[in-house]
Write a structure and sequence with these properties.
single chain, about 280 residues, alpha+beta, Ribosomal Protein S5, domain 2, four-stranded antiparallel sheet, binds adenosine-5'-diphosphate, binds shikimate-3-phosphate, ATP binding, SK_arc, Ribsml_uS5_D2-typ_fold_subgr, cytoplasm, ATP-binding
């Protein structure tokens, strides 16, 4: 019983750490999971190219999926990823979604299970192993469903979802920042600004929403605002992604290419990509 699936990474419109509401958009970079089920319980996880990384998230995803939709089988799970880990680009959501879908594929029920329900299994696994603050249903839903989503993570409620077709520039500094280490109390201080960003996002004004989000959360979590200032006013929106350190910008491709030249003077990597509206899928 083998299953295989892929799920996209995502960038931030609104970080949910301040007021519980969040918004994210899927991008064209993927994590793939391969699951082999066995009759005995116990799950062994492996992350390609990262032998020391924490495999509990993907192991818990297999356990929850076989508990709810199979007979509690164990097995092995292996992920391969184009998404830098703990960089604000939702590597955890992509890994969880790919693993849940690959497990459902191995159980031969992937087409019967609603995608939002499958996504919530990954959110539950992330809460169980402590890699998230709010559950990150914003990031998980964007990765599972594709497009841009707005969610209430306190209620695990999808408030809005739409397909979008944006060019996206990503800047990834060489450092890592794990969500579980974020200074949540400082983020909560900017809740009134986060509420404003949620209103802008629900109004479809995603570009302005993400720019306001980026300045506010960069201040709260003490990340530099230089990349955003170098991108404005040429782009439609620019923000610190998640709990950082990556920065994402959306807008006209030519303008993004100009911003890329400026960002290339910084340490780390830049890449041009697009939004992704199909979401996760079995392979
Ligand atoms: N490819 C992967 N395979 C398995 N687990 C992963 C993978 N990528 C990320 N994770 C899990 O997600 C955690 C990082 O999550 P987080 O700090 O929220 O970063 P991000 O912003 O990239 O989602 C890792 O410690 C690991 O548990
Ligand atoms: O753990 C969490 O609850 C969250 C982590 C952040 O994302 P990253 O995991 O990308 O840092 C944030 O953007 C999201 O809204 C909520």
């Amino acid at each position: 019983m083998n299953g295989r699936a892929e799920a996209p990474a995502a960038g931030t419109v609104l970080n949910a750490l301040a007021c519980g509401k969040g918004s994210a958009f899927a991008i064209d970079a993927y994590t793939t999971a391969e699951v082999t089920l066995a009759d005995e319980p116990g799950v062994e996880g492996e992350i390609d190219g990262a032998p020391d990384a924490d495999t509990r998230l993907i192991e818990r995803c297999v356990e929850l999926a076989t508990d709810r939709h199979g007979d509690g089988q164990g097995g092995t799970v292996r992920t391969e990823s184009e998404v830098p880990m703990a960089s604000g680009l939702k590597s955890s959501s992509a890994a969880a979604n790919a693993t849940v879908l690959a497990t459902l594929d191995a159980l031969d029920v992937a087409e019967e299970i609603d995608r939002e329900e499958a996504c919530l299994l990954g959110v539950e696994a992330a809460r169980d192993v402590g890699v998230t603050v709010t559950g990150a249903f914003d990031d998980a839903s964007a990765s599972m469903l594709g497009g841009v989503t707005v969610t209430d993570n306190d209620r695990d409620e999808l408030l809005a979802r739409e397909s979008v077709d944006w060019d996206v520039l990503v800047y990834t500094p060489p450092e890592q920042a794990f969500s579980a280490d974020a200074d949540v109390e400082r983020c909560k201080r900017i809740a009134p600004i986060a509420e404003l960003v949620a209103e802008l996002a629900l109004d479809g004004r995603y570009g302005l929403a993400m720019t306001v989000n980026g300045f506010a959360f960069s201040a709260a979590m003490e990340f530099p605002t230089g990349p955003a200032v170098e991108a404005l006013p040429d782009v439609a929106g620019v923000s610190l992604s998640g709990t950082g350190p990556s920065v994402v910008a959306v807008g006209d491709r030519k303008a993004l290419q100009g911003v890329r030249e400026r960002w290339d003077n910084r340490r780390g990597t830049t890449w041009l990509t697009t939004t992704q509206s199909r979401g996760a899928r079995t392979r």
